[in-house]
Predict the 3D structure of the following.
Amino acid sequence: MHSRTKYNVLIITPSDIMAAGVSEILLRSREFVPCGTIPNLDFYSESKFKDCDLVLVDPIVASWEGRGELRRQLSGSGVPVLALSCSTMSDEWLTRNFDGVIGLYDGSETIISRLNAVMEQTQNATSTRIESDELSARERDILTAVARGKTNKEIADDFNLSVHTVITHRKNISHKLGINSISGLTVYAILNKLIDVTDY
């Protein structure tokens, strides 16, 4: 893990109750401290919150039509972004588009455990970052397609491969990079200039 004893966490939610509750849970932990709480993205700027290690965002701050833009707006900071979900239902969009999901009904231990897991994954990916030329040309192609949100079937059709071969390539990519989530692979692809953030 990181040599610092505390990770700074920015909380973005219009709910005072949620902000206060999450802040209190973070303050009771030994690993995390709230570095700011803002009600919406109008108050978000990379310069003001550049020292944050993690962002927790309530997806309610974006309109339904703007949900796709929400993650893109925050991903420029290069830090992990977790969704604060008020729903008891699983939301595939949240799981697919964020580094993790914290639920309104999750206990303190679960929340801190999820935050630690995301930070550990982020630190491992940073400390063991492998240059993209260590991936084969085909693996770079597959990684780019995954980062663009294509399904295994779509990738298989694009490259005239079987779905099984695509799955094998994806496993190899995840193993080489030490990154298992789609959002993590997307961040890696952007940082290593395999795709451009403007592609989104």
